[in-house]
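Example S7 (structure tokens).
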């Protein structure tokens, strides 16, 4: 059963005040069919971080971030099965961008 991508934008939007308080320019893209594997994403760009969170209707979710002052990438893959999983991923992105807390299981090249 495909993951309902229509919940992604509103879940990101729920944190608007937090994204704004971090000085981030952020946006959520519309859902794209992407050759039969639909996806959407959100981008976050601020003085310290550049980040993108992409989610496909399969539940595969990729978070890619770059800390601007030193170019350090911190990325993580999620397999989102429900809204609770999505909320967890969004909260981990928020903690990384706000507090510098690296998500458990993140890939740091």
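Recovered sequence:
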């Amino acid at each position: 059963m495909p993951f309902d991508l229509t919940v992604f934008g509103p879940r990101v939007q729920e944190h608007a005040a937090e994204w704004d308080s971090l000085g981030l320019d952020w946006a959520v893209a519309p859902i794209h069919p992407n050759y039969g594997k639909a996806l959407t994403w959100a981008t976050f760009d601020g003085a310290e971080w550049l980040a993108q969170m992409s989610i496909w209707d399969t539940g595969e979710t990729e978070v890619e971030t770059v800390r601007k002052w030193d170019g350090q990438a911190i990325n993580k893959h999620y397999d989102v099965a429900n809204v609770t999983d999505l909320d967890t991923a969004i909260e981990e992105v928020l903690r990384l961008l706000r507090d510098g807390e690296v998500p458990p299981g993140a890939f740091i090249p």
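Notes on this example. The longest strand covers residues 49-56.
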